[in-house]
Amino acid sequence: MRNAAALSLTAFLLASCATTPPPPTYDLLIRNAQVYDGSGGAPFQGEVGVSGDRIAYVGSRAPGAGKAVIDAGGKAVSPGFINMLSWATESLIVDGRGLSDLKQGVTLEVMGEGTSMGPLTPEMKRLATQRMGDIKFPITWTTLDEYLVSLERAGISMNVASFIGAATVREHVLGEGDVDPTLEQLLAMRRLVVEAMEDGALGVGSSLIYAPASYAETPELVALATESGRCGGIYISHMRSEADRLLEAIDELIEISRLSGAPAEIYHLKAAGRANWPKIDAAIARIEAARAKGQRITADMYNYTAGSTGLDAAMPPWVQAGGVEAWIGRMKDPAARAKVLAEMRQDKPTFENLYRHAGAEGTLLVGFKNPALKTLTGKTLAEVAKARGVSPEDAAIDLVIEDGSRVQVVYFLMSEENVKRQTALPWMSFGSDAAALAPEGVFMRSSTHPRAYGNVARLLGKYVREEKTTTLQSAVHRLSALPAKNLGLKDRGLLKTGYYADVVVFDPATVGDHGTYETPKQFATGVSHVVVNGAVVLADGEPTGAKAGKVVRGRAWKGWADGGCRPTARDWTWAW
Fold this sequence. Notes:
The chain is α/β, with parallel strands linked by helices and 576 residues long.
């Protein structure tokens, strides 16, 4: 009997061993971490396991081992950060590492503020090639998706996605002139939006202070946003004004969202110009009132008191009709030049004149196309005007003519108190409004705004740790899960089993930005590791050479089982 019992026990144990699966082995295991999962909830001590390109475990202690292990040493581990306004469109072509963003933990670059890299006509390709500045490249694609795929095939460290630009669609059908579309032309524009959405675009982006985008009237934008909405996408806008007509511009965006059914986001929300700083209360109130009525209105921002754009934002739209060549041609005409000068000097201009709010002393020259003008980089418009013995307005016109471009500048416009307040808003995400650069090679030919090297790190260091304007878990949420939800991304934005393994390891005690307006090309510090689609692309603060970035596509992409546009925006379920 004893022998029989022993044999039975042995058989039971053998059977148990045969049916109990071995502990999993992860491709990568991140241990000893303070886990911020992106939900906005409190962090916890735990581990994250990665298998292939997906997260396989998030919890206190993984049941298996890792083929590779990162000891976080008690540092924070979070979802990868989403740059909601990226201008890495050209920089990633020549350097797929995207170091200035990668070293801050950015794992997704979202492009398409007003203009996008497709769709292009032969004439658009010709003009784009003719107008290239420091970065030159062959245009081998026609559609927006072909451009994004070309980045992935060439090899990039982070993921990429894009809106289709409303101005790009307009130029495709109408050219660069100040004209209104016919019904047939508007239908052609709408078809271009649908095609891009079903190729994976995230929505329609507009930039309404710049020609030719500024020529679009509200009904045209509603029509394009309607197509975006019925294709599961959003409408996102650099609004018609961020200064004197800020509140009216917010009203227009909310109305476009209401009429189209598409959610809407405000690019880089701000109250520009000292006289407009007090408007921030009313601006926030308008957004929150719309949200209280059930409209999905959000915003993003960069964490600085200066913006950066061109001298086109100092001159009236009429003079810019037809493109930069026509703009320059008009300004060579004495009568047209005199009219431009008069309008630039108006106290209450009818266009968005950022120069008037920044002043010549607050307009810093950072980017020229003409090598002969590059010695002026880092000077203010006031300094150049004084050296030339002309007015600042004349100097601005002359520089555009001599450079053959809009000239890149930094405008000092915003209130630090407003920036602080905005960083805490629960519906606010973040975008650099800059390229992804490195202090080497072609990128050394021009200066830039420090936001290119520090927007995320500045939020986590200056505003979270030092100013305590918001909590770390809230900041992480609004760098990851919030924008992923707003964009309708599949399986991105959270540390969650089954989601793509886009992961960042950073030190909350040391993360910070270092660039200044005088010396902007300084990498942020405090991020030690970045994982993109399961591959380690940054280790111990340095790039590994892995090119794991992929194209991230929107909800109507026909590659999804449930892809394709639908009759109306109401036929989609929207996160809220």
